[in-house]
Amino acid sequence: MRILLVEDDELIAAGIISGLTQHGYHVDHCVTGKQAEAALRSDQFQLLIFDLGLPDGLAIPVIQRLKQQGLSAPILVLTAWDQIDRKVAALDAGADDYMVKPFDLRELEARIRVLVRRQQARTDDVLNYAGVSMDLAQQSVSYQGQALVLTRREWLLLKEFLLNPKRILSRERLESVCYGWDGDIESNTIEVHIHHLRKKTTKDLIRNVRGMGYMLAAESEVDDAN
Fold it and tell me: Are 90 and 52 in contact (CB under 8 A)?
């Protein structure tokens, strides 16, 4: 899952990025509202975190423009102002939740899970599919009851598939989820990660859709293979 963090305080941003990375997210960071809007024109993110007070002004009009343009990703607002008017204005603009600084990273991560859960109309944080069980709260994953040890990139990939069980995911999207703006990657990197996931689960779990990308096989197909 890829998150865009819009925060001008470098220390706070570094702490959020470090904490969320440890919880199995990929976080890209920008500083201003203009940078955020530019990023969203070229990249996809599954959730946005906005500091309310940015160097180029309040984030409220930016959030409002993004929502008016059809942005569906949840938005969580961070603010140093414990003023009800500012909170209400952010929510009215389209924000889905807010937190007042300072905050505990554990609560931030929990609120992210709640927002994603709400968007997907799920009731808990456990993703189950064809023998794979991923507990997002406990950061654990198993296949047919046996615990799996995944690398960070493998976790990000498997999580993206499980959050989108019926969708074809392009290689470009999978690269962005795993690497974001981290730099150049080898052309076959995603294929290598998928190969490792197949070895740790079953070769039939993830299928290649020629010319389009990858998707989870139908559960019946995986069951039949086993």
Answer: yes
Query: What pLDDT digit, counting tens, does each position of 92-145 carry?
Result: 999 999 999 999 999 999 999 999 999 988 989 999 999 999 999 999 999 999
d(CA 226, CA 188): 28
| Residue 223 pLDDT grade (very low, low, confident, very high; cuts 50, 70, 90) | low
164-190: per-residue pLDDT in tens?
999 999 999 999 888 888 766 777 899
Q: Helical H runs in the chain?
A: 10-22, 33-42, 60-68, 84-93, 105-119, 152-163, 171-179, 189-200, 219-225
As annotated, the residues of the chain forming the CATH 3.40.50.2300 domain(s) are 2-119
CA 140 to chain centre: 17
pLDDT at 141: 97
Q: Distance of CA 44 to CAs 135, 149, 177, Å?
A: 24, 28, 9
Domain spanning 126-225: which CATH class is it, in words? Answer: mainly alpha
2-119: what fold? Rossmann fold (3.40.50)
DSSP 167: S
Rounded distance, CA 157 to CA 162, Å?
Answer: 9
Residues of the chain with CATH 1.10.10.10: 126-225
